[in-house]
Structure to design on (296 residues):
């Protein structure tokens, strides 16, 4: 194994252009599990990108309503203000990732690159309609995150491409993330959900994780709740919230594996969707029109 240590984005892209099949190393939290379990052998070129300054930066554009985070920004950084204030659901998801040691090393870009349907950050990115910037020797292209995630651990990355940054809209309104696992901490999601209530656009977005081959958006559930919601107060009847959960469960496509049954996953994701909707409505009652409210 040969390890390359680029010190700039141009150098990283140049190295990847010379070695398009090289293994990209960021935080290494997913990669080391695969190596330790014998699923992968790094017997070629490894390019470590966690020291590239351009990938360690972020920027916020309040006029455009977007937050752009570099590929090497860690979960621990996303947990702290001002990043947590710009994207509360992403902060909530980051809080559920592994242990403090994992959060200090792991990155959202690594979550995207692995593209497991159980990835904690992925439902948030899907619900917020995030985009992914990919750099190569040919230039930079931008891909919507919903098109980037092709299937179970399959992405739209081409040989020679590198995830550079992720752009996340900072929706005005409540947003939250929740998941179910076999214990309360350091657990892979059995089912997860992210809900975004975008008051400016008057739209609902719900994304489900770990209940399909990739992240699922629930178009019918979103439309029906958006129509039932009183947008002036961000409230709705509880029957509408329960129906929202049922439609979310119906949109899921879970499997049975060693962590859970398909039936439990379907039930759990419906409960999560209803619970998040109730939190959003409760926040609307407490502080109508006051913008983003972090879930309890």
């Amino acid at each position: 194994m040969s390890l390359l240590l680029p010190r700039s984005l141009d150098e990283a892209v140049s190295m990847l252009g010379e070695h398009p099949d090289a293994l990209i190393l960021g935080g290494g939290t997913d990669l080391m599990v695969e190596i330790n379990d014998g699923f992968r052998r790094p017997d070629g070129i490894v390019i470590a990108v966690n020291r590239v300054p351009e990938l360690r930066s972020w920027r916020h554009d309040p006029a455009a309503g977007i937050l752009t985070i570099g590929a090497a920004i860690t979960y621990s950084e996303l947990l702290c203000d001002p990043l947590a204030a710009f994207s509360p659901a992403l902060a909530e998801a980051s809080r559920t990732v592994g242990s403090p040691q994992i959060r200090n090393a792991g990155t959202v870009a690594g979550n995207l690159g692995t593209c497991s349907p159980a990835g904690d950050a992925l439902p948030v990115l899907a619900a917020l309609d995030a985009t992914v910037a990919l750099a190569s020797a040919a230039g930079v292209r931008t891909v919507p995150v919903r098109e980037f995630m092709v299937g179970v651990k399959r992405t739209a990355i081409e040989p020679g491409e590198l995830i550079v940054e992720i752009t996340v809209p900072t929706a005005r309104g409540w947003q939250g993330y929740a998941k179910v696992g076999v214990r309360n901490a350091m657990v892979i999601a059995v089912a997860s959900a992210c809900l975004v209530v975008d008051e400016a656009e008057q739209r609902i977005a719900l994304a489900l994780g770990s209940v399909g081959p990739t992240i699922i958006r629930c178009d019918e559930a979103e439309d029906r709740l958006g129509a039932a919601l009183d947008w002036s107060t961000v409230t709705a009847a509880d029957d509408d919230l329960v129906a929202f959960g049922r439609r979310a469960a119906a949109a899921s496509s879970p499997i049975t594996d060693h962590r859970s049954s398909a039936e439990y996953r379907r039930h759990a994701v419906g409960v999560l969707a209803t619970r998040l909707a109730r939190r959003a409505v409760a926040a609307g009652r407490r502080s109508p029109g006051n913008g983003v409210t972090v879930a309890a």
